[in-house]
Inverse folding.
């Protein structure tokens, strides 16, 4: 039972929290990254240098793993990456593959969502034991959509679009639970506790960062904007996350006087 769990994207927003969670559970972990391990990093995990886009380092990364949590993503090549990962996993004895996906990928025609749908299909038809969890947007992503605009005179949001952000640590907890359990197929979606107007979330992010900017909602034409306005990325009946956006902002913003 001492075989490691491989976390692809173990250096990313979600993956690094999954790694921390699995280590806290006392499990052996192997982190996959395209980069070599940072000098002086003595955390108790193994490291596998692997590029899913180029197909390098896969067999060594998958060797002797008990399971895989696939968190790596790179909008341009996620489909080829999923295919390569699945093939390498088959060669390595077919470990349980847990894949993180996104609520609404079959409703909103974004190119990235199309690649997530295709990657899900590859996982489902892989012949491996598999589990897929779809979640809504992480708080970090929603806040970043505002903070990247901080040098502009106004902050743009999508008019009439509601979001239901979820805390990444709660998603990581769920993935850690799933990878330690039996393969479960597509499990119930996971969404944050509140459905919120994108405009309110932008204003809350600005307030927390001490920035004074006007929030300007844009009404865009086209099917993507229409499906977003129709609630395509929401799962109100799966509002199982506990941490609200304001709690997330408060936790990441140092109290006044210590900034
Ligand atoms: N962000 C959200 O709101 C959200 C919501 C729902 C679901 N998800 C899903 O959650 C997953 C993780 O998202 P995230 O926001 O944590 O991503 P992220 O922060 O952008 O991290 C991406 C990770 O992928 C790795 N990576 C990229 N290209 C790679 C390649 N060619 N080969 C190997 N590794 C590669 C990176 O590792 P190195 O740079 O170290 O190589 C990095 O650790 C994605 O599947 C995403 O669709 C995200």
């Amino acid at each position: 039972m001492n075989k490691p769990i491989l976390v692809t994207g173990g250096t990313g927003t979600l993956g690094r929290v999954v790694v921390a969670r699995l280590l806290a559970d006392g499990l052996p972990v192997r982190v996959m990254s395209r980069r070599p391990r940072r000098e002086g990093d003595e955390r108790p995990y193994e490291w596998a240098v692997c590029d899913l886009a180029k197909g390098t380092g896969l067999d060594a990364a998958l060797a002797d793993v008990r399971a895989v949590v696939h968190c790596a993503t790179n909008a341009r090549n996620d489909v080829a990456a999923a295919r390569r990962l699945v093939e390498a996993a088959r060669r390595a004895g077919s470990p349980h593959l847990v894949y993180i996906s996104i609520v609404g990928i079959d409703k909103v025609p974004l190119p990235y969502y199309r690649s997530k749908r295709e990657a899900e299909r590859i996982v489902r038809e892989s012949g491996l034991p598999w589990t897929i969890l779809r979640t809504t947007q992480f708080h970090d992503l929603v806040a970043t959509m505002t903070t990247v605009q901080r040098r502009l005179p106004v902050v743009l949001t999508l008019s009439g679009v509601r979001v239901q952000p979820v805390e990444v640590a709660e998603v990581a907890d769920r993935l850690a639970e799933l990878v330690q359990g039996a393969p479960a197929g597509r499990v119930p979606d996971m969404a944050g506790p509140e459905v919120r107007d994108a405009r309110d979330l932008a204003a809350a992010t600005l307030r927390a960062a001490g920035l004074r900017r006007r929030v300007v909602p844009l009404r865009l034409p086209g099917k993507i904007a229409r499906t977003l306005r129709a609630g395509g990325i929401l799962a109100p009946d799966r509002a199982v996350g506990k941490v609200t956006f304001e709690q997330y902002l408060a936790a990441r913003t140092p109290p006044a006087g210590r900034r």
Q: What stands out?
A: The pocket of NAP is lined by residues 8-9, 11-15, 32-35, 50-53, 71-74, 81, 100, 102, 116, 135, 137-138, 141 (CB under 6 Å). The chain has a mean pLDDT of 96. The chain is about 35% helix and 20% strand.
